[in-house]
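Milestone M4 deliverable, item 7.
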Amino acid sequence: QVQLVESGGGLVQAGGSLRLSCATSGLAFSSYTLAWFRQAPGKEREFVAAVSWSGGSTSYADSVKGRFTISRDNAKQSVYLQMNSLKPEDAAVFYCAAAQSFSRSALFRATFYNYWGQGTQVTVSS
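Output delivered:
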């Protein structure tokens, strides 16, 4: 049974930092593309960042470039999202996702991913 479990969300002041973690099980983890998406109330789920199976290739939404960093630890079967310089507009439920393949043109789409976690709430106060 595949499981993705996010943690690390919480309340932070604008300008602050958080580190999200996603622990997985039941996956051939080292062969999966991993990503973070987020969804704010009343908005569609949007791509945040993705990392290839080896960690050698990363992609970011323009809105988070230079502030967020995605990384993975294949030995721990986990993926992380370091979020710095947080803004109130970053507030959302953040989801971890896993895809069985890698496609630079498709990894921005939620439909590309096979497995999802339940999400972790990030709240940013101004």
